[in-house]
């Protein structure tokens, strides 16, 4: 058995910079990765999906330009779209490999499992270290639908290998993955059906968010089936047929399963190292990323926190500070995220309902995008800006922006929240005309009434 200084399992968003920084400090670092370097975001998540959406949105915007008096004939070269997706993805993944190599990290391309306290085995190597960091992320959770197993259904792991645009695509799940990829495929020319078991799309978001996204997807030709589940799947002669609990049967050449995630912990043999998992199999950590085993830390999606790349990456910075003995914590940060649908959903902090449930004397103001001059200029008037404040402290508690490029704008609110600024800062700001951001002081002014 070899002794090293640090073992990292998984080359996810936090694991790679941690490995590189610690190795650059002169530590002997071994990193295990069983799949492609760079984790889900680079290979199967954020980037391949946003590369695909860049093409899809270009097609949709070109079609929408007719409303502005500009008529374009749109022809999608799907193989070229997918070649670009894979080319850029591969460049990003190779870049991760070069970064690790340059920093002097010893990369073991194999699945890792614990064999004892802070002792890990993989690829024929057994190593032990005083510090072990788990960054193993999540995998698609595939529901046990009769007939599904053994069919060539797609998940985010296989979707980006598509070479031909499916004439009809059935998407199971109307959450982030289902809506981004479902709308993207529709804009590229597939006939898309989204099947969601909840009564609305994006059921974890506010109801009027679901309404705007529902209308936008329908306008792109997506057919939406709510409050229904797939009960049986069959695949014959290259065609899927999915029997729904509402009695309908849908057919398609592709079936994308996007029904949520499960933690990558079964292979870890965590109990051998004294690492406790929660009831859903995520690794239990405290506010300093410590697992129940001394010297073993976990970061990123595998801890069951909101599953976003920037959260995992920020975990890396905070864990580095914790390891240096600084009084840094895991939880004291503003959570924001974006769904890259068209229009986008940009979220920061708490919704009104969440704030009230936490005991705040919360108040919300909403401004429809059709009252923002720039949105009218662009003919992009779907959606709204919503701000939630604490009436007692005047602090901003959260925001929901649905609209054109709303994901860029919501970050302005995140910075104000991080600074602890009161909503009056927004209200008093003279922002630039005509921009979308100019709507924000108008929104904040509602609190003066
Ligand atoms: C389709 C899709 C689109 C997304 N888009 C966005 C987006 O736009 N923005 C955003 O912020 N987030 C997005 N996400 C979420 C984002 O991808 C994750 O939150 C992010 O990758 C953080 O992951 P992580 O660092 O926890 O680990 P991951 O990136 O999941 O990496 C974990 C790594 O550990 C490896 N591993 C697992 N078990 C073992 C083992 N036993 N031994 C060795 N290696 C192991 C895995 O192979 C993997 O490479 C998207 C996700 C999906 C599925
Ligand atoms: N832009 C982004 O940042 C981005 C994009 C994609 C994914 N992600 C991350 O990845 C995570 C996973 O995304 P996801 O879309 O896989 O999960 P999700 O939890 O967002 O959505 C899954 C949806 O599937 C539905 N569902 C579950 N089982 C079903 C069934 N049997 N039949 C029909 N519907 C069913 C759920 O009600 C839910 O609406 C997200 O929560 C997010 O954290 C982020």
UniProtKB/TrEMBL annotation:
Residue span, Pyridine nucleotide-disulphide oxidoreductase dimerisation domain: 338-440
Broadest EC class assigned to this enzyme: oxidoreductase
Keyword Hydrolase: no
Domain of life of the native organism: Bacteria
Catalytic residue positions: 433
Keywords for the protein's UniProt record, in alphabetical order: FAD, Flavoprotein, NAD, Nucleotide-binding, Oxidoreductase
Record InterPro entries: FAD/NAD-bd_sf, FAD/NAD-binding_dom, FAD/NAD-linked_Rdtase_dimer_sf, Pyr_nuc-diS_OxRdtase, Pyr_nucl-diS_OxRdtase_dimer
Co-factor note (free text): Binds 1 FAD per subunit.
Gene3D superfamilies hit by this protein: 3.30.390.30, FAD/NAD(P)-binding domain (3.50.50.60)
GO molecular function annotation: dihydrolipoyl dehydrogenase (NADH) activity; flavin adenine dinucleotide binding; NAD(P)H dehydrogenase (quinone) activity
Similarity field: Belongs to the class-I pyridine nucleotide-disulfide oxidoreductase family.
Name of the protein in question: Dihydrolipoyl dehydrogenase
